[in-house]
Amino acid sequence: MSKPKLVLIGNGMAGVRTLEELLKLAPGKYDITVFGAEPHPNYNRILLSPVLAGEKKLDDIILNDDAWYAEHGITLHKGKKVVAIDRVCRKVRTEDGTEAGYDRLLLATGSAPFILPVPGKDLEGVVGFRDIRDVELMLEASEKHRHAVVIGGGLLGLEAANGLKKRGMNVTVVHLLDTLMERQLDKPAAALLQRALEDSGLDFKLEAQTEALLGEGRVRAVRFKDGSEIPADLVVMAVGIRPNVGLAKASGIHCERGILVSDTMQTFDPQVYAVGECVQHRGELFGLVAPLFEQAKVCANHLAEFGIARYQGSVTSTKLKVTGIDLFSAGEYQGGAGCEELLLQDPSRGVYKKLVVRDNKVAGAVLYGDTVDGAWYFQMMRDGTDISAFRENILFGQAHMGDSGHGAESHAARLPEDAEVCGCNGVCKKAIVDAIVQKKLFTLDEVRAHTKASASCGSCTGLVEQILQSTLGSDYSVSPAKKPLCRCTDLTHEEVREAVRTQVLKTIPELMGSLGWRTPDGCHSCRPALNYYLLCQWPDEYRDDPQSRFINERVHANIQKDGTYSVVPRIWGGVTNPRELRAIADVAEKFRVPCVKITGGQRIDLLGVPKAQLPAMWAELGKHGLMSGHAYGKSLRTVKTCVGKEWCRFGTQDSTTLGIELEKMTWGSWTPAKVKMAVSGCPRNCAEATIKDFGVVAVDSGWELHVGGNGGVKVRATDFLCKVQADEEVMEYAAAYMQLYREEARYLERTAHWIERVGLPYVQSRIVDDAAGRRALCARFLESQRKAQIDPWAERAQGAEKHEFEPLTPAERKANACIA
Amino acid sequence: MSHWTPIARLEDIPRQGTRVVATPEGAVAVFRTVDDRVFALLDRCPHKGGPLSQGIVHGARIACPLHNWVIELDSGQAVAPDEGCVRRFDVRLEDGMVAIALAAGPTGS
Predict the structure, then answer these.
(1) What is the DSSP code (8-state) at residue A808?
(2) DSSP assignment, residue A476?
(3) I need a labelling partner for A172 at 20 to 30 A (CA). Which of A44, A103, A199, A661 fits?
């Protein structure tokens, strides 16, 4: 049976990206034919500015060479312009008569620069700024001529002007309005930009309306409405782009300004898809690459017949590709009704920052001079992060947010090449930049895969995004608006949890089946998440899937770098006695444990235990009443305490007893990520309760409750939740807080990140203000604990999951086989 | 000359699970996929020597428990862009018995 035929018209970034996504999802599904009007292979159009400026060569910006098409069995027609689509017979025809039939057609015809309809527009030396041909013409002109005029003071115009200046021309930028980049910048930022560009030698003529281009044969001058003239041997029109819709229109496909597409990237004719700058989606046109890549993903999903992706528009950000100028803008930078504006202006440093805030969420940003936090603001914008807890510091940037990790502490572009960016994996800036350039990476995920930077603890993610932006020098925003759970699905964590609840899905295969998973049994990222979501939703019915747990949870011990494990007995509230200590010492001696370590959480760690010995050690410890400390799980770890009023001369409450009670209530509970608690007996806070997920600090009149602390990679002090009086209240609030976190956070999201995402006021509204809701959460938590509080060590010491711990022995098995 | 050594019944290895067998050539991890295919690799990740047997089996791949490198079970190749390869062993499944091909002769009697 022959395969269905897919024809792509337009060999540019959006169309070929769609093919790449499709080949990932369903390789070999189609016979693919590509038509490109340009005589070049697929190249990175957003890097034309650096080519013009002499910072890159044409060869550097090729994305897919001829070999790539050959390797994937794709027929490529370069330099052939499609002039007709026959939708009845389902075939396309080019200028030179080449024909190709299709079952599915993908239009990615892009856009063309808008050329002002003024006299002289057809003179030699008048170009747009769109493709390699335009750049070649400009480079040629820069060698022979002196005067360049760029019409259009937007992003593209300024990049063209910068490039031509660097090539040694005298450049004047002509703009209709009185402010540059008015679609991205407010007036103060635009004024700063103009001054910086003037300092670098560009001339500006603002509020100027072009009347005619003068010259015979080649352009000689530009004349304006006010009668003035300036000399010009080269005129670059950069006043906007127009979607290329001629072909689509002629073949009867409904178009307005662009080709109209639905959320599934289908045109009026369901056999015909369209992506990229040629489309109009929910009234919007697109000129940046990030939305095109999101469209490509959705389109590929439908071409592969998965049918579950939706394109719902993109939030985009802008960066100017002009060396030495730091400028970032995103979202609703102009503000307006219902918005507040946070401003920071430091003219002598040349820094201007504006955040537009609505309902305590970032709605837009303009940064000039210091853009290091652009990615961070942008992330908050897309996530809808509630900033009320830190809005007084937000303009000073992430580095001032108690981030003691090696986050975005210095400006990516100014970092030296050998600066270490990712401390976990020892990746320096040069390695990241080289990978981006040589391997042609566009996204954070790709950089992670190729360099490992930001792939471990993630604290350098912001910085890696910055490097990506400064390397691509691009107007390209890195992450999609919606982050899928993993590569096996396009659904987010929230969508999956919602489906588990509403579609009453109770096993992993059931879930994957009804939500259209791309892989037969998921991957190491999604399976543990799904296992947790099911466990949390159906505590009574769901049977835990050990094969969907990370090794530490599967065997209830921590794997170490040499493949041995560590054993950490539970020590309630950090209080032990000689009998338990003796038992631990005896076990350590008997099993020749190479290292005994007091942990940071007031426990004793027996390190270097071979896996096969674990059950025997656990059995021995169990005889003395010691059980699993859950030091390995996405679960309640420890409740750290100080000695409290029983011993301490400053202690105001009995923190030790309360800590033990809290641990007895919460142990064994599975959570999205690890959870640590602490109880301090006075505000001196010896148990360090203010960097715990749930911290309790005694004051004379009761207990202060603190939430969302983290002492890990990125230190975060807790937020103050509320104050309560009785011990029983602490217990109820703790249980309710645990359950809210269990039910609503994303898998692997610590409480610190969860609270930053949803905002402290939200958590307060659920735990403090809503007494009935709090009691209901508490009741659900205690209910699920009835099934959870089973000592996994005792079960295994008695033989559960035996196969986990015993190696196979071939000789024995062979003997058995003979007997059988 | 390779020698077929029976090592286990299929049901001794959990689905999407792994068992380890000690051989003269080192510890070998024997994997069973969700659709009951069986593969064997040396139990050492090409990255930092992590015990592959302790990872998560998905599709016909294993994710190393130490740093999440993903290895193809049929070839022992690391999934791109990671590079590296772990030694693989031929495995066959006959009448519910899993046997692997070892270079040396049988170890036992």
Answers:
(1) B
(2) -
(3) A44
Sort out which chain B residues have CB atoms less than 8 A from A555's CB and list them. 54
Half-sphere exposure of A524 (CA within 13 A, CB side): 20
Q: What is the CA radius of gyration of chain A?
A: 31
Unique residue bearing structure tokens 């060569």: A57
Q: For residues A218 and A181, what is the distance between their CA atoms, to the nearest angstrom? A: 29
Q: Distance between CA B71 and CA B80 in Å, rounded?
A: 9
Question: Which one, of B90, B29, B23, lies nearest residue B57 by Cα?
Answer: B29
CB contact under 8 A, A813 and B8: yes
Alpha-carbon gap: A465 to the closest alpha carbon of chain B (Å): 19
Q: Which residue of B has its CA nearest to A546?
A: B17
Digit-coded pLDDT (tens) for A204-223: 999 999 999 999 999 999 99
Share above pLDDT 90 across residues of chain A, in percent, rounded to a whole number: 64
- Distance from C-alpha of A272 to C-alpha of A338, rounded to nearest angstrom: 41
- φ/ψ (deg, to 5) at B33: -85, 175
pLDDT tens for residues A473-526?
Answer: 554 554 555 678 998 998 999 999 999 999 999 999 999 998 989 899 999 999
For residue B104, pLDDT over 60 is answered with: no
Sign of CA dihedral A483, A487, A490, A495: negative
With CA atoms as reference, report the closest residue to A562 among B68, B48, B82, B47: B48
CA A395 to mean position of chain CA atoms? 22
* Integer Cα distance of B100 and B109 in angstroms: 17
Q: Does residue A816 surpass a pLDDT of 60? A: no
Q: Can you tell me which residue has the tokens 């079960």?
A: A795
CB spacing of A561 vs B97 below 8 angstroms:
no
A819 touches chain B (CB under 8 A): no
Q: Note whether B48 contacts A: Cβ–Cβ < 8 A.
A: yes
Task: Tell me the pLDDT tens digit for each residue of A553-589.
Answer: 999 999 999 999 999 999 999 999 999 999 999 999 9
A772 φ, ψ to 5°? -65, -40
Q: Supply the pTM of this predicted model.
A: 0.71
d(CA A550, nearest CA chain B) in Å: 7
Query: CB-based contact (8 Å) between A818 and chain B?
Result: no
The Cα angle at residue A680 between residues A674 and A682, in degrees rounded to 5:
155
Beta strands across the sheet bearing B61-63 = B56-58, B61-63, B70-72
How long is chain A? 820
Q: What dihedral do alpha carbons A202, A204, A209, A215 form, nearest 10°? A: -40
Give A569-631 as a DSSP string. B--GGG---HHHHHHHHHHHHHTT-SEEEE-TTS-EEEEEE-GGGHHHHHHHHHHTT--B--T
Contact yes or no for A44/A61 (Cβ under 8 A) = yes
Q: Which residues of A touch B45 (CB under 8 A)?
A: none
Which residues lie closer than 8 Å to A719 by C-beta, 6 or more apart?
A389, A706, A707, A708, A755, A760
Contact between A235 and A245 (Cβ < 8 Å): no
CB contact under 8 A, A810 and B57: no
The string of DSSP letters for chain B reads --EEEEEEEGGGS-TTEEEEEEETTEEEEEEE-TTS-EEEEES--TTT---GGGSEEETTEEE-TTT--EEETTT-BBPTTS--B--EE-EEEETTEEEEEESS--S--
CB A773 within 8 A of CB A555: no
Q: Of A425, A251, A304, A286, which Cα lies nearest the Cα of A23?
A: A304
CA distance A739 to A733: 10
Whether the pLDDT of residue A351 is over 90: the answer is no
Provide, for chain A, the percentages of residues in helix, strand and coil under a 3-state DSSP scheme, each rounded to the nearest 5.
35, 20, 40
Contacts of A807 in chain B (CB under 8 A): 19-22, 27
Task: Give yes or no for B78 touching A (CB within 8 A).
Answer: no
Q: Give the closest of A519, A555, A803 to B12, CB-based.
A: A803
Residue type (1 letter), A420: E
pLDDT at residue A480, as a whole number: 52
